[in-house]
Every structure is written in C-alpha cells, then in structure tokens.
Amino acid sequence: MWEDRLTIFCGIDWAERHHDVALVDETGTLLGKARITDDAAGYNKLLELLAEHGDGPDTPIPVAIETSHGLLVATLRAGNRKVFAINPLAASRYRDRHGVSRKKSDPGDALVLANILRTDMVMHRPLSADSELARAITVLARAQQDAVWSRQQIANQVRSLLREYYPAALLAFQGKKGGLTRPDARVVLALAPTPAKAARLTLAQLRAALKRSGRTRSFDTEAERLQAVFRAEYARQIPAVENAFGQQLQALLLQLAAACQAADDLAAAAEACFHQHADSEILLSFPGLGPLLGARVLAEIGDDRTRFADARALKSYAGSAPITRASGKKRFVGRRFVKNNRLMNAGFLWAFAALQASPGADAHYRRRREHGDWHNAAQRNLLNRFLGQLHHCLQTRQHYDEQHAFAPVLAVSVGQAA
Question: DSSP characters for 391-414?
Fold first, then answer.
C-alpha cells in the first residue's frame, strides 16, 4: 500500500526531556505528529510512528533535527537513514516563511524542520556515514582537544594568580617549553606554594622534587638555578595574604594536574584508535602530521568518501578556501568565518609543522609571503593546498609524494638557488 504513497519527511524538535515529531508528505500535508520522551520508550515510539508511515530498511524516512549528537540521533542513524542536522539559525529563517507573527512552538518547529526537507533537502548535507572506528576517533580526538584547551585555561589562571604574589615562579618556569604545565613546574610549586617556602628550599629538596617530576638529567644545574631564582629579592605580600594565595594555588594545581593527566590519557587513546584505521597510513605520509594531529584531522573529515563531492567542498568545510561576495561593481574575496573550527585549528598546526618537514611547503609559504600575504593568510593558503592533496590521496588510496605535490614550487626554488 505504501508504494502508492508520496515521499514522507520527518522533523524533530529536540529538547532535553522530550521531543516533538511531525511527518509531512510531498504536498506539505501533516500526516502525523507526536511528543516522545527522551528515553528508550520514547525512541521506540518514534520508530513505531515512522514504521506506520512506511519506514523500512529499503525506504527509510529522512529526518531533520537541530542537533548532530546524542542518543536520539544515534538511534536514528542505525541503518541507512539520512539524518540532517539543521542549523538552528537556518531553521529560524525558515520559520518566517510559515507566518509573520514570529510565534514559536515546539510542534510548529518540528513541522518547519519537516518542510525544510520537503522543499530544500538537496541544499542540506546529511550526517556522514562514517565507520564505527571513525566515530570513536572523533569522540576521543575532540575530548583530547577539549582537555588541552582546559589545561591551558587553568594554566592561564595559575599564571594570573602567580602575578599577584609569586613573581619568582613565573621567572623560573615561564620561559621553558610547556611553561607552568610542565611536570617539574607543578611538582616544585606544590612543594613551595609561597615565596617564603620557596626561599627555604635546599638543593637536596629541589633535586628530589625534580626527580619526582620525571626529569632524567641536569638535576644539580637546574636545582641551583631554581634556588637562585627563588632566593632573589622580590616585592612580597603580607604573610597572611601570601599564605591565602598559596592555598588558592594548591587548589589550582590539583585541577591543572588532573587536566594534564586527562590530556595525556586521551592522547594515548586517540593515537591507539587512529593507528587501527585504514586511512592512518595515508594521513601519516603527509609532512607535519603525527598520530595525534592526524587523529584530529580524521575525526573532523571522517572516512565517508561520499561526504565531500570534491576537494573544494572539503576546503570550504575547513574554512581554508576563500569566499567571494559580489554585488554590482563590488567584489570582495576574503576568508570564511562559518567553518569547522576544530579542523581549522588542527590545520594551522599541521601547516606550521609542515614548514620544517617539507621543502615544498616551506617554499610555497615563502612565496605567498613574498606576494604580500600575512602569516595567517599564507598558512591558510598552504593548508588549502594540503587539503586538496589529502582529498585526492584518500580517494585514490595513494600516499603523499613531495615531488608531485609541490613540483612547480620546488622547480622555481631550485632555479632561484642556482
């Protein structure tokens, strides 16, 4: 009986405790609606409602929803159903097409989402059909990136606190790689959270603290340097205030230690999953991409080869491809502001690291700078080129080849050197 029915579209207005569902056909007729709870019973009720209107393994009903994660989305993505994550801002613009009063309701929003698919489904991209391993990498890589950002945020809080009462600690560790997130910095500050305690540290105590932090060499030299820094003359807070600041520092150090441990554990887990993926060898063949950065890139682009129609689609998604705005005689070419920020963040790290590992990338960057690009623009242009090469390599299952990737640039560099 369903062979004669029109195509059905489903819209779901997502909320924390319940969800409103609307089903429409090609003519816009409302076929059914319901409110389901955010639990297994509610999900089963939704699947039953979809099945009543012809949903099946061969004829899955497409669904529009304003989120791309959660258990409800995971339930809907089981099988070959197309799930469209509609940006809430875009959905609000569609709402104005159905009324000028700007009224808003949950059932009405579900109907708007269903009609978005009915009228403009080709204008929206469904969630990618990534493999189970790729989705796991996405979870771990994003969690690790969040842990790194959290670690840096807490480190900035520690730095601001030390400026209030403990300038010696800043002089002792800020100039070193890793700064206040270094294990030796955290161990020494935990041992001496105030300038008074730091000034009383002996060389033996400092050497023992450095060993506990995992340092493997130059104990005596580093202990002597730290003792000299801590015993120099600085402005001081009164003792009671200094001790209060010391207690605040100890609390922040506990948070910083937990953030550092979380970042390290998640990095190890993300790298382990990344090495199991079939695309890992191709990604690691690119200069500047290590296991962790490669995991971040794979997490954002996925392994669904049909997700991006061409290389330009991937570049636009990352935000590396420029965008053109033209109106009348005015024409402006600039960078994209709507993009995948996580992929762009990983891309800048990738492009920067590639300058040391790839002569072609370095020559390309320098040529862009010579033509007037600022550093960020040159980096973005280099990333744009790398993403095009990555798309080609993943589609054709080839490894990166420096000579093919930057042949014209390398030829010009060799000619200039001669």
Answer: HHHHHHT----HHHHSHHHHHHHH
| Mutual angle of helices 341-357 and 359-370, in 10-degree steps | 110
Distance, in Å, from the CA atom of 406 to the CA atom of 418, rounded to the nearest integer, reads 18
3-class DSSP assignment, residue 232: coil
Structural contact between residues 166 and 160, judged by C-beta atoms closer than 8 angstroms: no
**How many C-alpha atoms does 71 have within 13 Å on its Cβ side?**
14
What are 277-313's pLDDT values in tens digits?
999 999 999 999 999 999 999 999 999 998 898 999 9
What residue has token string 């191709």? 282
Say which residue the tokens 């492009």 belong to. Answer: 351
pTM (two decimals): 0.86
Which amino acid is it at 378? A
Among 339, 340, 320, smallest CA distance to 387 is for: 320
Residue found under tokens 């480190």: 155
What is the identity of the amino acid at 150?
Answer: S
Residue type (1 letter), 2: W
CA of 252: how far to CAs of 59, 130, 158, 160, in Å?
55, 39, 7, 11
Q: What class is the 2-127 domain?
A: alpha beta
Burial class (CB in 10 A: 0-12, 13-18, 19+), 297: buried
